[in-house]
Amino acid sequence: MQVSDFHFDLPDELIARFPAEKRSESRLLVVADKSSDSIEHKIFAQMPDLVTANDLLIFNNTKVIPARLLGHKLSGGKVEVLVERLLDDNKILAHVRANKALKPGTQVILEDKINAEMIERRGDLFVLKILNEQNSLSLLEEYGHMPLPPYIDRADEQADKERYQTVYGEVPGAVAAPTAGLHFDETVLNQLKAKGVPMEYVTLHVGAGTFQSIRVDNVEEHTMHAEYIEVSQRVTQAIKDCKARGGRVIAVGTTSVRSLESAAQFSQADQLIEPYQGDTQIFIYPGYEFKVIDAMFTNFHLPESTLIMLVSAFAGTETIKNAYQTAIEKQYRFFSYGDSMFIQNQNRFVKAD
User: Quick one: CA torsion of 240, 246, 251, 252, rounded to 10 degrees?
Assistant: First the structure.
């Protein structure tokens, strides 16, 4: 299986560089079943019509931190830091761009306020020790820039601090948004609650590695970056209850999919899913057998990315190719600030009542 099998051509004007005026006014492409003529076009505000009280919605409650910092070395050379992970109160693991790679002991000044020292290199990443008295998270919240993806080729704005964030995010740690959740607003969530749709939350702190291109030709040779996840006992029990009543486990976003399928992968052979806390490097591409997920909401993903491979594994490669081509023809908006899809596992195409 070649990476090029997942290529498509996208007109530049379809890349969403700003969010829709209102979250739930984005468009929603619905793949109703496996046939090529079954695509429906809706507005995201209509998504509660696609689920029932029998189903279970799983959200990722990670919160994006302002992870991009600009600054300079004490010697004067420019430095750009993109935090990958908070290691503790005063150490961060980060991608660093500079004219020369930082050496241990090199000190930098970021945003004219944060003093840091490079203390260790881990592969392509650097461990920086924050020398200020404030902890790393509070400094990032005060001085950092929102880490917009590379294809949103503009500087971050004040509005991005709200819009590049889900309304339900509450666990700081992500350096990229779980973008399928950006369409949910309080009105939609309240409609789901009124309808009696069960909702639970996992945590996956999205890393900057999610934007890294695949550097091999053969899909099977790719190694995924690691990301931290938490799947609780409450969530696993809710999933088992949903399966027992014949409902669908519906993931909001690929991060929720990866969290749940990872927990299932680490479970005992006789268990559908068990609680899990730790890193995952799960790589889902066509041929993967899903253990937990029956349907999902997701955005439109980059060509030749691990995420388009995941949704292709989920609904079928030809189904996704057809859906993406339709979205392009209908002028849907793509990527993080773009429109949404609702798709189902190729073996579980069942319409909601």
Answer: -120
pLDDT at 33: 63
Q: pLDDT > 70: what percent of the chain? A: 96
List strand residue ranges (DSSP E) for the chain, in order: 27-31, 39-43, 56-60, 62-64, 68-73, 78-88, 91-98, 107-110, 114-122, 125-130, 171-174, 199-205, 227-231, 249-252, 276-280, 295-299, 340-344
The Cα–Cα gap between 259 and 265 comes to 10
Own/partner contacts of 17-25, CB < 8 Å, gap of 24 or more, are 17/152, 17/153, 17/154, 17/337, 18/337, 19/163, 19/164, 19/182, 19/337, 20/333, 20/337, 22/185, 23/163, 23/167, 23/182, 23/183, 23/184, 23/185, 23/188, 24/183, 24/184, 24/185, 24/187, 24/188
- Conformational region of residue 181, where left means phi above 0, alpha means psi within -120 to 50, and beta covers everything else: alpha
CA 8, 332, 288, 33 torsion: positive or negative?
Answer: negative
Query: Residue 18 half-sphere exposure, CB side, CA atoms within 13 Å?
Result: 7
Report the C-alpha gap between 193 and 244 in whole angstroms. 21
Q: Rounding to the nearest 10 degrees, give the CA dihedral for residues 113, 115, 120, 126.
A: 10
Q: Which residue has the tokens 């902890």?
A: 135
pLDDT digits (tens, 9 = 90+) for 256-293: 999 999 999 988 888 899 999 999 999 999 999 999 99
The secondary element (H helix, E strand) that includes residue 329 is helix 317-329
Quote the distance between the C-alpha of residue 211 and its chain's center: 10
CB atoms near residue 278 (< 10 Å): 12
Which residues, at least 6 apart from 252, have a Cβ–Cβ distance to it below 8 Å?
57, 58, 59, 60, 178, 180, 181, 184, 296, 297
Is residue 250 classed exposed, middle or buried when 0-12, 13-18 and 19+ CB atoms within 10 A define those classes? buried
Q: For residue 109, which phi and psi values (nearest 5 degrees)?
A: -120, 120
Residue range 9-14: mean pLDDT, rounded = 97
